[in-house]
Amino acid sequence: MTIQMNIAEAKAKLSELVARAEAGEEVIIARDGKPAVSLTPKSRPSQSSGRRLGLWDHLGAAIPEDMFLGPDPDVEAAITAWECASIDPAE
């Protein structure tokens, strides 16, 4: 579908026109009723590829593989202290 709109109207509805152009519609902006320019979407990066692995490798950071997989020693100590705490209503 083709949409043609004069500059003044297009100025007021620019975000809508951009969205429609990104959706694949042909958007033409006219001056005095004559086509002047057309909006066409830039190609977007493929979202299907997912995350790029190793993005920070160039920084040389040595992060252990199991850094985020093992238990946190601080949390383990807090849980142990809580479990071993005596609950005495007289205190």
How are the secondary structure elements laid out?
Blueprint: E1 2-6, H1 7-12, H2 14-22, E2 26-31, E3 34-39, H3 73-84
Parallel strand pairs: 1-2
Antiparallel strand pairs: 2-3
Structure description:
With 91 residues, this protein is α+β, with helices and mostly antiparallel strands. It has a domain at 2-39: YefM-like fold. The chain has three helices and three strands, in the order βααββα. The chain has helices at 7-12, 14-22, 73-84; strands at 2-6, 26-31, 34-39. The protein has a three-stranded mixed beta sheet with strand order 1-2-3. Strand 2 (26-31) and strand 3 form a beta hairpin. The longest helix is centred in the last third of the chain and has 12 residues, at 73-84. The mean pLDDT is 82.
Compute the average pLDDT. Answer: 82
Give the H and E element order. Answer: EHHEEH
- Strands of the biggest beta sheet: in what spatial order? 1-2-3
Oligomer: single chain
> How far apart are the first and last residues' alpha carbons, in Å?
79 Å
CATH T-level topology of the domain at 2-39: YefM-like fold
Q: What is the CA-based Rg, rounded?
A: 30 Å
The total beta strand count reads 3
Strand content: 15-25%
**What is the CATH class of the domain at 2-39?**
Alpha Beta
Helical proportion, percent range = 25-40%
Total number of helical segments? Answer: 3
Gross morphology is elongated
The CATH architecture name of the domain at 2-39 reads: 3-Layer(aba) Sandwich
Low-confidence stretches: none
- Helix/strand class: alpha+beta
